[in-house]
Amino acid sequence: MARFTSGNDVIAREIIDRYPVAKSAVIPLCHLAQEQDGHLADDALVQIGELVGITPAEVLGTASFYEMLKREPCGRYLVNVCTSISCHLMGGDELLHHAEQRLGVRAGATTADGLFTLEEYECQAACTEAPALQVNYRYFHNVTPADFDTLVDDLAAGRLADTIPPHGTLARIRQRIPSDRAAGAASPIGGAQPGWLTDSPALTDDGSNP
Amino acid sequence: MTDVKREVAVDTVSLTVNGAAVEAHKGQLVIDAADNAGIHIPRFCYHPRMKSVGMCRMCIVDIDTGRGPALQPACMIPVADGMVVDTLSESTKKAQDGVLEFLLINHPLDCPVCDKGGECPLQDNAYAFGPGESRFVEEKRHFEKPIPVSDLVLLDRERCILCDRCTRFARDVAGDAFIVFQERGGQTEVNTFPEHPFASYFSGNTVQICPVGALTAGPYRFRARPWDVEKDESTCTSCSFGCRITVEASRDEVIRRQGVDLDPVNWGWMCDKGRFDFDAMNASERLRTPLVRDGAAAREATWSEAIGRAADALRPALDGGADRVAVLGGARLTNEAAYTWAKLAKGVLGTDNVDCQLADGLPPEVVFGLPRATIDDACADGGTVLLLAPDIKEEVPVLFLRLRDAVLAHGVKVVELTPQSTSMTPLAAASLRYRPGEAAVVARLLGGGDGGGLSIDGDVSAARELLRGATRLTIVLGRPSIGESAATIVDAVGALLGGFPDAHVLTVLRRANVHGALDMGLTPGLLPGHVTIDAGRDWFTEAWGRVPAATGLDATGILAAAAEGKIDTLVLLGADPIADFPDHQLARTALDTVGTVIAVDVLPNASTALAHVVLPAAGPSEEAGTTTNLEGRVLTVAQKVTPAGTARADWHIAAELAFRLGHDLGLESIGGIWDEIERLAPSYAGLTVDIVRRAADRDGALMPIDEAQLAELDGARVTIASQRHRVDAGSATAANRAAAAESQEERQADELAAEAEQSDDEGKGVARGASTSQARPPLLSFAPPATATELPAVDAYGLRLVVSRTLYDNGTLNQHSPSIAGLARVACLRLNPADLARLGLDATATVEVSSVRGSLTLDAVADDRIPPGSAGIYTNHEGADPADLLDVHAPVTTIHIGTKS
Ligand code: SF4
Ligand code: SF4
Ligand code: FES
Ligand code: FES
């Protein structure tokens, strides 16, 4: 699967409608695709380009800039172990080594069952709780090797399914704004002025204030 | 030519650069202002024809705007009054050292094996502004050495300094954003989407503007070193746009062409065909020796024998047989060669069966008889352009770049009137489809006339409002499809001028020097310089000794007469009617029937294969002279290499033939020919050799030459009559045009007679040489046709055929160019998806297409650029050619589709 499912296609068009300029929707659409497939397949990038009217290369240019948008298939759980300075001092490297042993893959790889992708990560801003790791960007602090084993067991058994959704899930993408509450998309460049903008004159064609 | 006039002078700003007072235009960038003052600020990412991005930081200099000096990028900062710029300060030097040291961190030391070495801005800047030594000892980043990003361009990412020039060009200039920056930070690289190559007609430009050797062109890689290359400025003759270029040769072989920034024309850009197809001239198949054919087989012959054979075949024309001789082609020639051939054909042989267009052009009264617009006129701020033309990206590609820029950056509104969507459709403010043959119907509606029962839909009225609101309207005019006759387009022009009498016309006829060949009279009914045979009879008889008795046949007439056995000798001047004439059946019968076919050409083709005498001609860059682009700009072409084998310049061949026929054309050099053109061809009056040469270093000479241009070429002493022609032609409204061409002619003749007297008094101009007793004849003008072309009724079961070109087709030059040959596509039948469904065809069905003329077997493909009710076939593609279906005598062709059993 790579192109949007019919349900996601509807959501994709809703997302595009939120923006005055269609190509502004590229990143939310990348998130939507990643939510669907766990990563960004080439077909998805092509389709996003079609939807917003830019080339697949331009979509790729944007998507590849962001670490969190994955171009390779990613496990259901993305485990990021921090080895930056505080965690390094507090045993982050040992934790990563343990994780590699436990999962049977090197950092950067995905387990054969497709459950876990392990990554060595930069500082996660949890330095006071070092060593830290994230699973699908949810924090776990002061993690010992034993904690790690428990965590992996729980994840594999589905005991954390409620708190940690599969990789790619971003609740905000599902956010629906009823049309009566939507601000309405207005182009910052030329175009019609939105209704709620009462006392400020529209910008001129080149985007400057008249 | 090198001074790029980007900014419109509004106000002048005074600043100081390195202690010197400098004047600049308001809004101009510091880097440009410094350039104009002769102070060079080093740069990588800045390119005067693209928006600055400030990516590379090489142009950082000390700029003081009153708050003390600070390092700022000169390519991003507009000048301001009182600004003090220091490009030599200590801090500037330190910044430059730093930038170069950083850029060289990841740059491989490839110079000895890099194409750019010797002409590389990175090398040059490193020498001139760099620290001389690097402190970097770590491992540089590595990428796979060159990866192909397109069929013609390779990318070595290790060498890339991430200046954003190629990617900006692709996105902003060409509109083909197929190469982009990917990844981030130290990993950033330029690349394509997987399996989506940089398929752009303009990809070669990125190689030229890359400031390092990251982008290289396949055809040039490892072929030469800059210091082994000799270059001359010239003009591309792969189409009629007239891009200014350098022709670069090494060991007597052309190995590269690069764009030169000619402000009114190409802005330094070229299309890939123009950039790379020169290698066809180096092909082993090149015609190098004359050939003569007795019976089936052709054999090599000496020039003497071949010319003798050709002269024998032409001799009967001298004694009353002029009507049985015809000359086809000539759009490949330089102006000088075209003039020489016109003089031979019309002045010596006395035949007017001469046509440089192969039924794919427009009548000369449309090309010259209407007020002409320049490219700049069409692209100037706030103008309106009506496109009644083929897809300009496929036929005159760089015009597409200019118009695209005009639309996106200069508020130009485009109204498109075409039988199928084109590359301009997404940029057009209004885009109207007409049913093939019926351009005039929509044109009449646009002009405010009666649509013959056709209702005006919203699109038409919106387009009409746009055109009515236009302050300056340019009609970009060509043949949108060669599946419909030229007459249908002439009708449409008449209708448009009825509604918009002040419109100017820019003709887009594709063939290289077709405008120049028309100027020189290689068309029926005309003599050199836009005069009809009747108007110019006395003038040219006195100069040439003879002119044709009456208007002769055009290409269609010539081939039809030939097919009926009424032509004994047919000269093909670089024309290949068998492949290029829109009606194959007619062309083939004609060439089979003619007694002697004499082909003057550079490469073998289907028509030279049937010729009885083949005379090898010098190709582009093998013959010097001038060429005239589609707006009438006379530009020089350089001879850079010697002609292949024993090939001779086209004008030599004509002069030699005349000599064998006992006539001396009196033409002995390019300059001498030009002197005669200037003296005799009224539209070229005043455009002397001297002016042409001096104009070559500037913008070329726009024809007819006027006082303003002469003034710009300072010191020009010549005043000329032709300016009045221009004024007359320029202010001719449809009303007076239609009223009477004669009265205008009389008026012009009077004025010219007066002018001639005056010139006599001044002892120059017309008085020289021949034609002393004559006034310059009046110029041609356009009168709309009185009756519209009759169209057949719409056939509910048939589809009207749209025949168009693509840039990479199976043309002779393309076929023999190793760089381009692989890019041609296979012919197919393009149908609107709705028609495809209506006919019950699936997307890859093989179908049998038939017309009254013939049938073809093709694959049908869905193409929504074709409107319902029409069908498109590209001409000159592999496999099948629509010329097998076309009848040139019919205004449109209807086809029927049957599935292949
Ligand atoms: S490839 Fe060349 S033009 Fe493109 S970004 Fe790199 S250095 Fe600049
Ligand atoms: S647009 Fe025409 S003149 Fe310019 S490079 Fe291409 S073929 Fe040559
Ligand atoms: S160093 Fe690991 S979270 Fe900051
Ligand atoms: S030239 Fe100014 S930043 Fe590159």
Number of domains of chain B: 4
SS element count, helices of chain B: 30
What share of the residues of chain A lie within helices? Answer: 25-40%
Radius of gyration of chain B: 28 Å
Beta-strand content of chain B:
15-25%
Shape of chain A: elongated
Going by CATH, the architecture of the domain at 77-157 in chain A would be: 3-Layer(aba) Sandwich
Name of the CATH architecture of the largest domain in chain B: 3-Layer(aba) Sandwich
One letter per element, helices H and strands E, the order of chain A comes to HHHHEHHEEEHH
C-alpha geometry of chain B: globular
> What would the CATH topology of the domain at 77-157 in chain A be?
Glutaredoxin
Structure description:
The complex is a heterodimer of chains A (210) and B (901). In chain A, helix 2 runs antiparallel to helix 3. Chain A has helices spanning 6-17, 26-37, 42-52, 56-63, 85-89, 92-103, 145-157, 171-174, and strands at residues 77-82, 116-121, 133-135, 138-140. By secondary structure, chain A is an alpha+beta fold. Chain A contains eight helices and four strands, in the order ααααβααβββαα. The radius of gyration of chain A is 21 Å and the shape is elongated. In chain A, 30% of the residues are buried. Chain A has a four-stranded mixed sheet, covered by helices on one side. Chain B is of the alpha/beta class and 901 residues long. Chain B folds into four domains: 4-88, Ubiquitin-like (UB roll), CATH 3.10.20.740; 291-361 and 514-770, Rossmann fold; 364-507, Dimethylsulfoxide Reductase, domain 2; 799-899, Barwin-like endoglucanases, CATH 2.40.40.20. Chain B contains 30 helices and 36 strands. In chain B, the strands form nine sheets. Chain B has a seven-stranded mixed sheet, with helices on both faces. In chain B, strand 33 (846-850) and strand 34 (855-862) form a beta hairpin. Chain B is globular, with a radius of gyration of 28 Å. Residues 1-9 and 716-771 of chain B have low confidence and may be disordered. The complex binds iron/sulfur cluster (2 copies) and FE2/S2 (inorganic) cluster (FES) (2 copies).
